[in-house]
């Protein structure tokens, strides 16, 4: 029996509560562990802001979006953050023997550093971008794609009614999984992703070709991190978060202006933004998150440390945190080639 801290860090994501539910239910019922929720990511362990987690606190969590623990992008390893010493001091003060960290690249990056310093930690991969290596899918991705494809379906009708080009900006800083998947599902006529810098003239030619065939509207889906081949886009903001990531935004507005300028066709842009990661998770994400939660506490209880739960094929397994975060998982080129069949 152990007293274990749980935290959710980074952007909120559908399925976080289902992971918490799975960990606590299995951990108490099977192993008799105690659980402490660390509020607002790594800030909870640094500041001692906690909540006890038991059977009552996880009731009704499965379909609930967001995270009952709150989240933040706090980085214990930023300048003045205290690093491993600050985290272990917080654990000692709270009587916590181990931490299960549920998050993406940044949250699990902190967990990896702690594991290297022999702090008992298990990671659970979370990101709607699906860009974490070591696992086939991260929970939250399926929900984000469903939200985006539903929006694209709706935008088809308004674009067609007004003979417009509509640019749909979706999330995806470094990887175009959401844009490509939602674009295919939603029947987009062009998909722009970070892995493939785009040529504006080519995009506009594809749109003009549709018009020449009598199709007077087009849908363009763009990842927030997409850039033109000439690199002239200035959509990246100057401010950065605690992990040094620039806050992106502006590709949709830039494309709206440039497509209308080049083609002469009325163009509008829609930024889906945070709606992609809000609300109730899909059935797939509820199941995947539940499986991740149960496996996370099983892995800890059988003595694993410094590991991340992962989906390989249809099986849940574990992989070393360091290996999972060695490099990002970029969009599968074969999937993008499939999408290209339907451009224009």
Automatic annotation (TrEMBL):
Gene3D superfamilies: 3.40.50.450, Phosphofructokinase domain
Enzyme class, UniProt record, top EC level: transferase
Residue span, Phosphofructokinase domain: 3-299
Database matches in InterPro entries: ATP_PFK, ATP_PFK_prok-type, Phosphofructokinase_CS, Phosphofructokinase_dom, Phosphofructokinase_III, PKF_sf
Alphabetically ordered keywords of this record: Cytoplasm, Glycolysis, Kinase, Magnesium, Metal-binding, Transferase
Pfam family, one: PFK
EC number annotated for this UniProt entry: 2.7.1.11
Major subcellular location class: cytoplasm
Single GO cellular component term: 6-phosphofructokinase complex
Names of the cofactor(s): Mg(2+)
Pathway(s) this gene product operates in, as recorded in its UniProt entry: Carbohydrate degradation; glycolysis; D-glyceraldehyde 3-phosphate and glycerone phosphate from D-glucose: step 3/4
Molecular functions per Gene Ontology: 6-phosphofructokinase activity; AMP binding; ATP binding; diphosphate-fructose-6-phosphate 1-phosphotransferase activity; fructose-6-phosphate binding; identical protein binding; metal ion binding; monosaccharide binding
Single biological process term from Gene Ontology: fructose 1,6-bisphosphate metabolic process
Localization per record: Cytoplasm
Stated name of the protein: 6-phosphofructokinase
Organism: freshwater metagenome
